[in-house]
Amino acid sequence: MQTLANVLVGLIAALHAYILVLEMFLWERRPGRELHGFDPAMAKATAPLAANQGLYNGFLAAGLVWGLIADDPTGFRVQVFFLVCVVVAGMYGAATANRRILFVQALPGAVALAAVLAAR
Question: What pTM does this model have?
Answer without folding.
Answer: 0.93
